[in-house]
Amino acid sequence: MDKKLSDYSNYAGIDASLETSLYEYGLIWIKGTEGHEKDFHFIYGVGVDQDGNYNKFDWADVSIDTDPEKEWDFVEWGKVGEFTGMSKEEFLKQPIPFIVYDLIAYYGVENIFGSSYYPFEIES
After folding, report:
1. CB 120 within 8 A of CB 3
2. How far lies 47's CA from each of 25, 26, 111, in Å?
3. DSSP per-residue letters across 44-94
């Protein structure tokens, strides 16, 4: 089954443009999908093309009420906060999707979501 970007029109991302969020930043999400009402459903990039744009994707769910410090207990929060220009306290006040985005930028997607076994493509 081919997936198209239009299938994700209700998703949000780091950029105002869903296309930019997916293909350039490698992360989009939706809150509370059917059957997963208490989760953020993330689509994230796992492969890039010759131009550096994401072209292979996978997905993961993270509970809306996740305590980041417990979920990712290996994270050095002060260093990640410094990396983003925030204090640890400011960093942890962000919504979960923005915390996830910054954690991926710092630690890599595999350390945050785990290995990707069945990547898929999304046509623009």
Report:
1. yes
2. 12, 9, 15
3. EEEEE-TTS-EEEEEEEEEETT--HHHHTTT--HHHHHHHHTS-HHHHHTS
What would the pLDDT profile of 75-122 be if each residue is shown by its tens digit?
999 999 999 999 999 999 999 999 999 999 999 999 999 999 999 999
- Cα-Cα-Cα-Cα dihedral sign, residues 23, 29, 30, 32: positive
Which amino acid belongs to residue 35?
G
Break the chain into its structural domains and give their ranges: 3-123
Query: What's phi and psi for 110, nearest 5 deg?
Result: -65, -35
The reported pLDDT for the residue numbered 1 is 52
